[in-house]
Amino acid sequence: MSNTYPASDEFVADAHIDAAKYEEMYSASITDPDGFWREHGKRIDWIKPFTKVKNATFDFGNVDIKWFEDGTLNVSANCIDRHIVTRGEQTAIIWEPDDPKAPARHITYRELLEQTSRMANVLKEHGIRKGDRVVLYLPMIPEAAYAMLACARIGAVHSIVFAGFSPDALANRINDCQAKAVITADTAPRGGRRTALKSNADKALFDCSDKVKCLVVKHTGDQTTWVDGRDIDLKAEMAAASPYCPYTEVGAEDPLFILYTSGSTGRPKGVVHTSGGYLVYAAMTQQYVFDYHDGDVFWCTADVGWVTGHSYIIYGPLANGAITLMFEGVPTYPDAGRFWEVCAKHKVNQFYTAPTAIRALMGQGTEWVEKHDLSSLKLLGSVGEPINPEAWNWYNENVGKGRCPIVDTFWQTETGGHMITALPGAIPAKPGSATKPFFGVVPEILDPATAEVQTGTAAEGVLCIKESWPGQMRTVWGDHERFMETYFSQYKGYYFTGDGCRRDEDGDYWITGRVDDVINVSGHRMGTAEVESALVAHEAVAEAAVVGYPHDIKGQGIYAYVTLMNNVEPTEELRKDLVKWVRQEIGPIASPDLIQWAPGLPKTRSGKIMRRILRKIAEDDFGALGDTSTLADPSVVDELIDNRMNRA
Ligand code: PRX
């Protein structure tokens, strides 16, 4: 039995959901999903109320997912306008800049309405209409929130590209969704340094249609090049635009956003989320999972470039009329106490971050935490990867002071919101386990080989979901076949998460990590195929195979086996050059941690690279290499072991 940590009686007494209520609501959500979601669908405002609730089939070949399909709404109105009467002067967004000496900003719901409206009017002036795509490539600044909500206001579809991605990655996404405009900023300050976003956008736009407009937020005032007729000074035009923009009525199933994410094969996929179901789900999970109460200050440290930022900085909290904190900087600037300084300064009540950040800060010692008053904290959250016991304990003892429940939330870009997580007043935390499913979520563990559902309480296998939930992605942008193939072809009748999972004797779920060729680096998803194709695009590289390996801080690191072209000498300089190359091709988050020169790669006689073996070598797990006799040349394995990089 693992240790469990129930919330205090005081916490439970005040919680939205206690144990009895969880049981009752969970059971209702499964036995009568239509009745359950008909009720909870009302938590948002509809222009035309829905009459239909769930209409979803996971049948391979016919996958079709719809929620609240005949209802109409506007997401921006739900996140702003409906709060104006009751909380117009309440802070919606607290913005904390990268530089701790610069003033923080408190943006009220009324100001949010005005700024969002102004930006929406500028977009309209430049021809952006309902259904058009707009790519956002922005720092963590209030304009990122305005831009998301401005798109939603006029029914345009945003696609945020994380500001750490390269010009190439940006161009690919602009082209894939055929965006009409890009919204960017001059430069992005982070950790005291500046990323030249506009200049990256300029490079990307070389490879895009010359009709694509570039709206630039002059954030730092740094010098940039300017293309007349294409580039637009967004702040100046906002200042001149009307401060109110009526919102556009959209269907529940009209797309709200596209977010590109890595898979096992090929280029990143455009995950499509729609308006009604997504908003209901993001808002409901934000309230219940974090036990958010009116007036609380909620801080999710993610970047809006990832789904966590979409659902838990912007849409979930704002739909609930919450106070949400947006942080431009990094946890270690100007020192390793920054997170805690910000918590103390803004009296944060719920704090939500990733294990990789906790591990990095843990390494800096407890004095950075002790310096700051964390008495406002009521709850802590974790997301993005399994949290190891050391990090859990450190978080619990030093940040939560043993009195804050910790919610370990398992979910994915594809799921829109939390899937498996403790509800803090109902389910005791169990370090390392995401514990129980959220309302409406039916997890099943399947045998990876036979696809048989594991019916015992204790079980191990791959994690699938049996029934649709409102926040589920609906399709891959422009490629429904790929959507079905990726998520519904392997285990018929189920949504396949790509994760391995164990269920213990208490029925609690433990996510054991990806079972496909996706690696999780610092809580960010990276496809090994993407890094490989970047490597082989270098003139010195003949072949490359990339796998993940355990990394103390990042969770997983990127390990690349590289075969060079004939006559190319493997040098330290080339190694550095390849790392730099991948950073340029994809972005810093894809930098290989280790590159091993591999004169040969283990291949079957038909030429398929046996990644299983490469993974084991990278993990230093030579006892478990398995059968190597089917290899075309088994001797390459010894060579790779002898020259491996990842030694203790
Ligand atoms: O492997 C799981 C891991 O992150 C993957 C999803 O990554 P992404 O789409 O980038 O979304 C991350 C934030 C929602 C999952 O397939 N993962 C996410 N949360 C957890 C997790 N693994 C274990 N425990 C978690 N709490």
Automatic annotation (TrEMBL):
Q: PTM N6-acetyllysine: at which residues? A: 608
Q: What cofactor does its activity depend on?
A: Mg(2+)
Tell me what reaction this enzyme catalyses: acetate + ATP + CoA = acetyl-CoA + AMP + diphosphate
Database matches in SUPFAM superfamilies: Acetyl-CoA synthetase-like
Q: Which keywords does this Swiss-Prot/TrEMBL entry list?
A: Acetylation, ATP-binding, Ligase, Magnesium, Metal-binding, Nucleotide-binding
Note the PROSITE patterns from the entry: AMP_BINDING (PS00455)
- Record: residues binding Mg(2+): 536, 538, 541
Can you tell me which residues bind ATP? 384-386, 408-413, 499, 514, 525
Q: Which residues form the Acetyl-coenzyme A synthetase N-terminal domain?
A: 22-79
Q: Where are the transmembrane segments?
A: none
Q: How is it modified after translation?
A: Acetylated. Deacetylation by the SIR2-homolog deacetylase activates the enzyme.
Enumerate the spans annotated as AMP-dependent synthetase/ligase domain.
83-468
The cross-references to Pfam families, in alphabetical order and at most eight, read:
ACAS_N, AMP-binding, AMP-binding_C
Which GO molecular-function terms appear in the entry? acetate-CoA ligase activity
Asked if Magnesium is a keyword of the record, the answer is yes
Q: Where does CoA bind?
A: 190-193, 308, 522, 583
EC class: ligase
InterPro entries in UniProt: Ac_CoA_lig, ACAS_N, AMP-bd_C, AMP-bd_C_sf, AMP-binding_CS, AMP-dep_synth/lig_dom, ANL_N_sf
Name the Enzyme Commission number(s) assigned to this protein.
6.2.1.1
Query: Residue limits of the AMP-binding enzyme C-terminal domain?
Result: 530-608
NCBIfam families from the UniProt entry:
Ac_CoA_lig_AcsA, PRK00174.1
User: What role does this protein play?
Assistant: Catalyzes the conversion of acetate into acetyl-CoA (AcCoA), an essential intermediate at the junction of anabolic and catabolic pathways. AcsA undergoes a two-step reaction. In the first half reaction, AcsA combines acetate with ATP to form acetyl-adenylate (AcAMP) intermediate. In the second half reaction, it can then transfer the acetyl group from AcAMP to the sulfhydryl group of CoA, forming the product AcCoA.
User: What family is this protein classified in?
Assistant: Belongs to the ATP-dependent AMP-binding enzyme family.
Q: Would you tell me the protein name for this molecule?
A: Acetyl-coenzyme A synthetase
Q: Which organism is it from?
A: Roseinatronobacter alkalisoli
Q: Which gene name belongs to this protein? A: acs
